[in-house]
Every structure is written in structure tokens, then in C-alpha cells.
Specification:
Strand content: 25-35%
CATH class: Alpha Beta
Order of helices and strands: EEHHEEHHEHEEEHHEEEEEHEEE
Strand order of the largest sheet: 1-2-3-4-5-8-9
CATH superfamily: Ribonuclease Z/Hydroxyacylglutathione hydrolase-like
Number of strands: 16
Number of helices: 8
Radius of gyration: 18 Å
Helix content: 10-25%
Amino acid sequence: MRIGKYNLHTIESGFFALDGGAMFGIIPKPLWEKSNPADEKNRIKLATRNLLLKSDSKNILIDTGMGTKWDEKFKEIYGIDQNEYSLEKSLLNINLKPEDITDVILTHLHFDHTGGSTKTLDGKLMPAFPNAAYHISKKNFDWAVNPTDRDKGSYLKENFFPLKETGVLCFTNNEKKFDDEIELIEINGHTFGQQLVKIEDAGNTILYCADLFPTTTHISLPYIMGYDLQPLVTLAEKKKILNMAAEKDWKLFFEHDPYSPAAVVERSEKGYKIKEKLKSID
């Protein structure tokens, strides 16, 4: 897909697993397991799926997945599987190396969105994309530095402190244009200062949904993660975004859905539903 000056490429960077109950909040398991079957530990399979925007002068990566810095215990807890897909492998498939990335837009600093932002080099944590500027909401960075006891396990400082220390971290003002085709939309239900990424021209709009809609199943309004700090805020944000997406025929890009990278939605008697699942946006 091409939008404005950008060619868009799906970047698959592996799979992991989280507790199904936590992923679907108040929704009973007999409902959510129809679309997202759980393993023997009640975990559901999730993707880490990133988006690459390529122009003549820029290679912009949205989020960086889990990364590869984890020990065996962490890999087992979260069922990390990068045997088939990894961030570097997927970039190589479109003839890009880490050195070619000019910008990284981070939706927020949870470990499954920014784990690939840093790597260990000669025993020291360094930016994984040495020539890139990393863009994050100041609000989310401030929260990540001082999270609550409830969510501090999701904000691992080794994934983002080295970015600040090496001077490559740039703070964005949300609800503003990143450039002519890219807009950052601030939402605060899941965590504070998460930024969705909307890429748009006169003919097409695609929204990188991050953790507002982690999977296609989360299009249904009551399906809100137990991880969300402000679930009623999430509900209002879902209604606002889905109203625009259905009215304007946006394509929604799902970071965590293991089966469908994107979809189009429509209004229904119960709110909103998937109109069409897309096999690819490339």
C-alpha cells in the first residue's frame, strides 16, 4: 500500500502470549475463547506486528516489538517465539538494515512495544537503530519513569533509558501532525500518553491501533483489557475512533492480532463489528 510519499510494509517481529482473562477483562472465557483459544496456562497467542513507512528520504518504524534481550525465565512466562519472525529478519526481507531506519515512533513504552528499541553491544545497552530518532509522548515517558505498583512490570527501563541517555529520544506533542501524512493521536485509557499513528492521504487512511484495539476481537465495545488503567476512558476512546473509522472507511492495523493484520469496520446493532478482514496491506 502507498499513502502519500510512503510505501507501507508490515513488519512481523514474532509472537508472545498473555493471560486471556487479562486480555479481555470482564468478558467471560466462553465468549473470547471462540476467537482466541487459550493454551494450558490460559494464555492466548499474540503477535508483535510493526509498520514500516518508506519514502525516498525516510524509513520510519512504528514500535519495535519484544526485542531479544530476555532470559529463559522471561521467555517461558511470556511464550516468546521468534523462530519464524524477528524484527531484523523482517526488515531484511525489504532490504533494510537497522542502520537504515531514520525514525522510530513508539506508541508507548510497555515492553512488548519497545523491547526491540535497545540491544546489548559490548556489554552495554545501546539504541538498536543507531541512526534513528525515537519519538515518544512526553506524558508516557514521564509515566514510564514513575509508574504505579500496578503497571511497573510493563515499563522496563532497560528498553528506554538508554535512548534518553544517548540523546536519541524526542518528545512529541500529541494530537498533532508528525508530517503531511502522519498524525499522532493521544489516548489515555490503556496508559497515559499512548499515541496512535494515523497515516492518511486523499485516498486512503490506515490507523496503527497499538493497544486501543490489540486484536480484531477488541472491536466489540465491552472487550477492554484488564491491563487498562482507565477502562471507562478506553470505552469512550473506542467509540470515538470507531465512529470515525466506520464513517470514513479507515483501515485499522492490529499490532497484536495473530491472525489478521488489518480490517475495515462498520456500525452494527450492538455498536461496531468487523466488515472485512484484510490479509495484507503490503
